[in-house]
Amino acid sequence: MVTLHYWPGYCSLATHIVLRWIGVPYQLKLAGFKARQSDAFKQINPTSTVPVLVDEDGWVLSQNVAILNYLAERHPRAGLSGEDARSRAIVNRWLGYINSDVHKAFSPLMHPERLPGDLAAQQQALENAKAVLRKHFEVVDQALRQHPWIAGERRSVADPYLFVLTRWARDKGVALEGLDGVHAHFERFVQDKAVQTALEEEGLKDSNQSARSEE
Ligand SMILES: N[C@@H](CCC(=O)N[C@@H](CS)C(=O)NCC(=O)O)C(=O)O
User: Fold this and answer.
1) CATH of 2-78 given 1.10.10.10, 3.40.50.1820, 3.40.50.80, 3.40.30.10
2) Cα–Cα dist 114/124, whole Å
3) CA distance from start to end of the chain
């Protein structure tokens, strides 16, 4: 069985949703802060982050973009990648943007305790992050006004990753007013039974909290 190391609401939720969409048996392994710093965890991922996927035969993969692409390629019938080189490139274009630009811009908001400087400097960093994120979500919104899924007419592994970040944005007070494409995309996920199950399994179903607090 596939194992997913995760923390509730973190970007590992994207992988979790994809596992449900694909329909393979999997088990979840909770990886809190302490567990992620352990030698055992560092052996499977030296960066101490989730997600980490361990395949049925013990093969280990970290980095969300690699994991999502791996799952899409291993399970082509699920149709979660593009049908040809160009449409796969578009999926990767969005995965790259979501992972490298949008996700990283959340760092101050997700981990304010790690911000340097005094309270005023920290407050400023949080406001700056929210302004940067508004711009990122405007870019995403433009695309979502043209087609229902981020990479086009059909859903892909980039969509659950975007859903996770929209959850964070809503919780952390990023201004999403007027971004109707983003709201419609989010609503499509809220209504999805597989997504509801994944949220339930992470203990987040009726919660607007972006992620469970770390111990
Ligand atoms: N580049 C990594 C980033 C993963 C990452 O930042 N994961 C976060 C959760 S969304 C994490 O595990 N953070 C733990 C920490 O910073 O202590 C990837 O794409 O997988």
Assistant:
1) 3.40.30.10
2) 14
3) 28
Q: What is the DSSP letter of 26?
A: E
For residues 98 and 108, the answer to whether their CB atoms sit within 8 Å is no
CA dist 146 and 125 (Å) reads: 33
Rounded CA separation 16/194 (Å): 10
Which parts of the chain register pLDDT below 70? 215
Asked if residue 50 has its Cβ within 6 Å of ligand 1, the reply is yes
pLDDT in tens, 35-57: 999 999 999 999 999 999 999 99
From ligand 1's centre to the CA of 55, what distance in Å? 19
Decide whether any atom of ligand 1 lies within 6 Å of the 81 Cβ. no
Pairing of strands 2-6, 26-30: parallel
Q: Which atom of ligand 1 is nearest to the CA of 51?
A: 20
pLDDT tens-digit series, residues 108-145: 999 999 999 999 999 999 999 999 999 999 999 999 99
Domain 85-192 has CATH 1.20.1050.10: yes
Nearest-CA neighbor of 80 among 159, 186, 183, 161? 159
